[in-house]
Structure formats: C-alpha cells, structure tokens
Design a protein that fits this description.
heterodimer, A: mainly alpha, two-stranded antiparallel sheet, 66% helix, B: mainly beta, Lipocalin, four-stranded antiparallel β-sheet, 9% helix
Chain lengths: 257, 364
C-alpha cells in the first residue's frame, strides 16, 4: 500500500524528471523537491497561519497581563491562556496537524530518493520492480554524478593539500537545518515549551546531519534544498526570527515578574 | 474545563515529540536497511559450498548443511562480501569485498593467505583467474586489477574507461571478456592489457558473459539475449525475452537457457537463437538457471523453485520457500543449491528428484 501509492509514484516521477532534464539526477532531485513543496504548500500555509495567530495572541496585552496576574499559579495561568486561545479561535494543535499530514510525504520522498539511485545489485533489482513499464530500460544505469558528488554515496570532498576528506554536504545540511528550524518564530506559550522546541531543533539537526554523513549524498541534496525553501518561504513572509538563529535560548517570551 | 485545556496543551507537545520520534525511527530504520546490501555470493567445490554474505565467508558441508568455518572470526564493519567467491586452480578461495579488499583463503580451513586492501571501490563482479595464474578483479573504480596470486599485490591496473562489471567475466587463452553495466562488452588481451574491441549493446548488462563454442552470450536490460563473435565483438544473433535478462544465459550442449524479470525461462538454440521452448513462472526471475543431466532448475524472486525437462520444458516438480532466489543456482553433491534472500535462511539444498528441502543454512 505504502509502496504502491507513495514510494513507486515518487520514484517514477524522479525517473521522469531525470529523463526530462537530460539525465541529471541531481537536477531531478532539486526540481522534484521544489514540486513537492509546492504541492504541499496549502498545508504549510495553514500551519503557518495557525502559528501566526498564536504568536499575535502571545504578544497581546491581554496575554501579558494574564502572565503577570497568575505568575504564581501556573495551572490557573495555563487554563486562562487556553480559554483565551479558544475565544480567539486559535488551536495550539492547528499548527501541528498539517505538519503531521506532510510527514508521510517527506518520509516517502526520502525513501524514494534512496531507492531511485541504486548502487548495489539488490537495490537495482528493487528499482526494476518499481519502475513503470513505459520507462525505457536504456536509462539504466542512472548517472549518479552531480557537480563533485556521487549521489549514491556519502559525500566527502578531498581537497589537494588537506590530508583528510571534508564532509562539505553534511556541513551544509547541518547549517541549513539549524537556520530553517530556528528562523521560525517560536509558538510556545511558556518558557518550558520554548525549551522543548530548542531540544527538538537540536535533536533534528543532529539526526539529519548524521543521516547525511552516512547515507547517499542524494538525500543530503534533498535536505539542503528543502531547508533552503523553508528559509526563503519565511523570508518572503517577513517573519524571520534571525536573533533566535544565533542563540541557544528557548526563544519563548519571558514570564512576567 | 481546566483539566481538558491542560490536556490539549500537553497534547500538542506530545504529538510533536511523537512525530519526531516516528520520523527519526523511520529514517533510522531506512539507514539500518542498508546493512544488507545484496544477496549472498556462492561457490561450490567438492563437498563444500562457500557462501559470501555480509560480514562473513562461510564454508558449508554439503552433506548436512553445517558450517565448517567462517572468515573472519569476528565481523569487521568495513568488510562485506556479496560476490561469488572464486575457487582457483590450486583450490584456494578468493573473494572481493564491497570496500575493495580482496582476500585469499585456504578453502579447507578458512585460513587467511593474504589480504589486499584494494582501492576502496566496491567489488561486485566475481574474481576470475587468468591463464597466467593471476587474479582479474573488476571494481567500481572502472579499472581491471591484475593481482599476483602468490604475493597478493597489484601487478597491473588496466583502465577500462570508467566501465564497471557486476557479473562473471569469461576467459580463454588470449582474452578476458567483460560485460559492463554501462552497456558495453570488452575484450582485453591478457598479454598486453590492451582493449582489443568494444561492443556497445545499448543496454546494461548486469549478469556477466558466457563463452562457449565460439560465441559470447549475454543478457541485456533491453529484454534481449545476444550472441557475439569473441574475435571482434560482432553480433551473431539476438533474440527477444520477456523482461530484463539479468544473469548471463547458461549453455548446455546446443541449447541456451535464459531467465528474465518477466518471469520466463526459455530455451533457445545456440546456433541462431531460435526458440526451442518457454516456461512461464509468473514471478520475476533474477537467478540464473542450472542444468544437470536431463533437467534444468530455476528459482524466482518470490521463492518458487521448479525443475523442467531440458528437452521439452515439461515441468517435473515445484517447491516454494520463504524469501527470494537470487544469483546462480548450483548442483553439487547430488543436491540443488540456491541462495535465498529475505527469508529465514541464506542457503537451501533441495532434492533433485522432487524438490523437497534437504537442509537450510543461515549465514552468521
């Protein structure tokens, strides 16, 4: 079911783009990532709209007054905050659900790229079972080179004069992952929530960087493109929190004293 | 009201963390999947089968399916074996690994004779022994390495123009023939190392090449079985299959037997490629068939094993195992041997008479 409706169509879309773009798998990954982002834009926009509403509420006088008033009674503060959110029609989960719905697409894309660049007989056999019949088999073997990369292998750049290989792509993945997550204004309603966000940001950056270091560089290319798109999207919206990018603080509003 | 509000708020954080956990779990699972990179390589000599799978090469007694030895004693994370090992003319086992290393072992005991670290590029194709006694290794580097069989050092490096081979090479007194994934078949002169001719077949060739009676036979990913003249690479004939022909066709007498991913086993004449008979097995067939006496044996990627009469393609028996059959089937010690991937075991021995499972072996 997952393979038939998610992975296989994605793999074949990648092959279609590969054919269309003159046999460049790197370009196919970039164009495909952009296309997927455009297709899922309504969900992203809905998520961002909900987050924006939350942030407006959090900076309102009413919210700040409430923090002062119930500074010593956390439970009461949270209950009152929830009431305010409800009366304003803001749903704390509203920003999360569209992201959750996108998760299968993101996971599918990740798996598709991994499956579409075979580097072993078993992987190629797997691809043969997923390719639609109308694709000419003369496409095989797919050209895996893009710029200095072999898209089927983890990337380590060897520079003359330097005795060790440098994982340039993993570095770019780490930087863009951090920036793309930290530029998003925090939506937490209290400092502990902001702390949770910070931990999640660090966890995700470490995880994605680790994946980039060990798996095919085609996946790293996907991570970089998708991170850059997120950054551009938020910049266009004018809602970038650059201050948060360069700090390790939670970014949550400080409680009133 | 208060309680439900708090629950909603916490639900958000919990959902977000659960989503991250799910994502990391799935991504990590995918990364873990890469550990089993391919199906096992298999070679048979006398009463022993040699299985190259993941971190180990193991020797399996054909009589009872028990392991006699394994190499290395402890797994080395950099060393993964998948190509069919070579049993050379002196009875030594030689195998290439995915990190480019080549090892030579005493086939009786598994004792290491030497280990060549290689150039770090995958070795997928089985290693061949030349008439000069040297080992010929095609790696993903695109070079053909000529290795001194005694010293374990690289004697010569023959550039193949970044072409790589995944299947067995064919050897005669003058040349070594190499079929490549990049659509070309090459003939390399043993003495000079020169590429004497190149034939572009316009399709990937994954399963190597077979040489018999003045013909080189290959299968291609454009659903063709092609016979070439070994002297100059000129096409002698070609015939259509029902899907990608992964493994090089197998030759017995005047007949060629070929399998394809379309699920067909076919017999064609060696002389001109004219069809003799065909049998449909419904599932993709990656594995090469094996012929023994009056029967031809074949296995599919969904675990179906069948025996057919060589003469007319009448089915003798069918057996099914969990997993898929890959690589090359063998007949040895009065048994049919098949590499199984994705099941509960790595190697299975079947009765030639009725296909019943005699023993199974799970690689370490």
């Amino acid at each position: 079911m997952w393979d038939t409706f998610i992975i296989n169509p994605m793999i074949n879309a990648l092959l279609f783009l590969y054919q269309l773009l003159g046999g460049s798998f790197g370009l196919a990954i970039i164009v495909f990532t952009i296309a997927i982002r455009l297709l899922t834009y309504p969900l992203t926009a809905s998520s961002q709209k909900s987050m924006k509403k939350m942030q407006e509420l959090q900076s309102s006088k009413e919210w700040l007054d409430m923090q002062k008033k119930y500074a010593k009674d956390k439970e009461k503060l949270q209950a009152e905050q929830m009431k305010l959110l409800q009366s304003a029609g803001a749903n704390p989960i509203g920003g999360c659900l569209p992201t959750l719905i996108q998760l299968p697409v993101l996971i599918g894309l990740y798996q598709s790229i991994g499956n579409a660049i075979p580097s072993t007989p078993m992987q190629l056999f797997g691809l043969s079972q997923r390719m639609y019949d109308f694709f000419p088999s003369v496409l095989i073997p797919l050209q895996k080179n893009f710029l200095w990369l072999n898209l089927a292998q983890p990337e380590h750049l060897l520079i003359p004069g330097i005795p060790f290989a440098i994982p340039v792509l993993a570095g770019l993945v780490m930087i863009t992952s951090w920036v793309s997550q930290r530029i998003i204004p925090t939506m937490s309603t209290d400092p502990s929530g902001g702390q949770t966000n910070l931990i999640m940001n660090i966890f995700m950056v470490v995880l994605i960087t680790q994946i980039s270091l060990t798996l095919a560089s085609g996946l790293s290319l996907y991570f970089i493109v998708t991170n850059l798109l997120t950054i551009v999207q938020y910049m266009l919206m004018g809602k970038v929190n650059w201050k948060q990018v360069f700090t390790f603080t939670s970014g949550a509003p400080k409680p009133a004293k | 009201m208060l309680r439900s509000d708090l629950k909603k708020k916490n639900a958000f954080r919990l959902t977000a963390l659960a989503a991250l956990g799910l994502l990391s779990g799935l991504l990590t699972a995918c990364a873990g999947g890469a550990l089993n990179l391919s199906w096992a390589g298999l070679a048979v000599d006398g009463d022993t089968a040699y299985l190259a799978h993941n971190a180990y090469i193991s020797a399996v007694n054909l009589g009872n399916g028990q392991m006699s030895w394994k190499y290395p004693a402890e797994a080395d994370s950099k060393l993964n074996f998948y190509s069919d090992p070579l049993i050379d003319s002196n009875g030594f086992l030689v195998a290439g690994a995915y990190n480019g290393a080549v090892v030579k072992l005493d086939a009786a005991s598994g004792t290491l004779q030497w280990k060549l670290e290689g150039d770090g590029e995958k070795i997928i194709a089985p290693i061949s022994e030349g008439p000069d006694g040297a080992y010929y290794v095609s790696s993903e580097s695109g070079d053909l390495l000529v290795i001194d069989s005694d010293a374990g050092t690289i004697r010569k490096r023959i550039p193949l123009g970044k072409l790589t081979s995944w299947g067995p090479m064919a050897v005669n007194g003058e040349r070594i023939y190499i079929a490549t994934i990049e659509h070309k078949v090459l003939a390399v002169n043993f003495e000079t190392g020169a590429i004497e001719w190149t034939a572009d077949l316009g399709a990937a060739i994954a399963g190597g090449v077979n040489l018999v009676d003045g013909k080189l036979v290959v299968g291609t990913f454009t659903d063709k079985i092609i016979a070439l003249d070994p002297k100059d690479g000129a096409m002698v004939w070609e015939t259509a299959a029902d899907g990608w022909v992964w493994m090089a066709p197998v030759i017995s007498g005047e007949t060629i037997f070929a399998t394809d991913l379309g699920g067909v086993l076919r017999a064609v004449k060696l002389e001109d490629g004219a069809p003799v008979w065909r049998a449909e097995l419904e599932d993709a067939i990656q594995a090469a068939p094996v012929i023994d006496g009056e029967r031809v044996y074949v296995g599919t990627s969904k675990g179906k094993v069948r025996a057919y009469a060589v003469a007319d393609g009448i089915r003798a028996w069918e057996q099914t195992v969990k997993g898929g059959l890959y690589g090359r089937l063998h007949v040895a010690g009065g048994k049919l041997l098949a590499v199984v991937n994705g099941g509960d075991f790595s190697l299975a021995a079947f009765s030639l008479e009725n296909g019943s499972t005699l023993w199974t072996y799970k690689a370490p």
